[in-house]
Write a structure and sequence with these properties.
Blueprint lengths: L12 H7 L4 H7 L11 E2 L6 E9 L6 H7 L7 E5 L11 H10 L3 E4 L2 E2 L2 H7 L3 E3 L1 E2 L11 E2 L3 E3 L2 E3 L4 E5 L2 E5 L4 H23 L4 H4 L2 H7 L6
Parallel strand pairs: 2-3, 3-4, 4-6, 5-7
Antiparallel strand pairs: 1-6, 2-8, 2-11, 9-10, 11-12
Length: about 220
């Protein structure tokens, strides 16, 4: 099996565009409360958003050699998803790599590791979701894999799966479920709009969600 695979299944661009308009929380709930990465995967700056097919990378902790390679394997619109063995000391990404990724049209980076150069990356507008920040230098010495399945922050990610990130975190949509999840997410959005209209008209979440009955069943008492 080669270290690097170039040809992977890819979703329809229209599907990517549609899912990119939806909040990660809605997608997570629409697909049965699965696919959300660990809560420790956060945008390096508020307001960052990305959506695209996963270009998956696995490397040894503290080594970013394969991430450098991935910049030139990923296609425009891809989100690089990196399993770095949860190494949290030496960073795996910075401003130089961001500049290369932007030139290639890459849509963002999700890493279970840490990054640096946060202020210039923010200025450049490149979405990054990581476990944190470290200024310490990364090694470039070990081979890994690109476009093989990885587990990133507790979620299995296959090449070509759709990755969506926003201020609430990162969610992964299996490629085979993408159309189904889109339809369910849109339906959920419509239901929530209706519910908020009812709340503004004076109804309560206890009533609309049936929580008043649940509280009674559980034996709630009040003075």
């Amino acid at each position: 099996m080669p270290h690097v695979i170039h040809n992977i299944r890819r979703p329809d661009p229209q599907l990517i565009a549609a899912l990119g308009q939806l909040p990660t929380s809605t997608i997570h709930e629409a697909q049965g409360h699965v696919g959300a990465m660990a809560h420790t995967i956060r945008p390096v700056y508020p307001g960052m958003k990305c959506c695209g097919p996963a270009c998956t990378v696995r490397s040894h902790g503290g080594d970013n050699l394969m991430l450098h390679k991935a910049i030139y394997v990923a296609r425009p619109g891809d989100v690089i998803v990196h399993d770095g063995e949860d190494w949290l000391e030496s960073n795996v990404w910075g401003e130089i790599m961001t500049t290369g990724a932007l030139q290639r049209g890459i849509a963002g980076l999700v890493t279970s590791g840490v990054v640096r150069d946060i202020e210039p990356i923010h200025r450049k507008g490149f979405p990054i979701f990581s476990r944190g920040v470290s200024m310490k230098w990364a090694a470039k010495a070990s081979l890994g894999t690109i476009n093989h399945p990885v587990v990133c922050a507790g979620v299995l990610v296959n090449p070509g799966d759709i990755v969506v990130g926003d201020d609430d975190g990162v969610v992964v949509i299996p490629l085979d479920r993408a159309e189904e999840v889109l339809a369910q997410a849109r339906a959920r959005e419509a239901r929530e709009v209706t519910m908020m209209e009812q709340l503004q008209a004076g109804r309560t979440t206890l009533e609309l969600l049936g929580l008043d009955k649940l509280l009674t069943q559980l034996g709630l008492t009040e003075e």
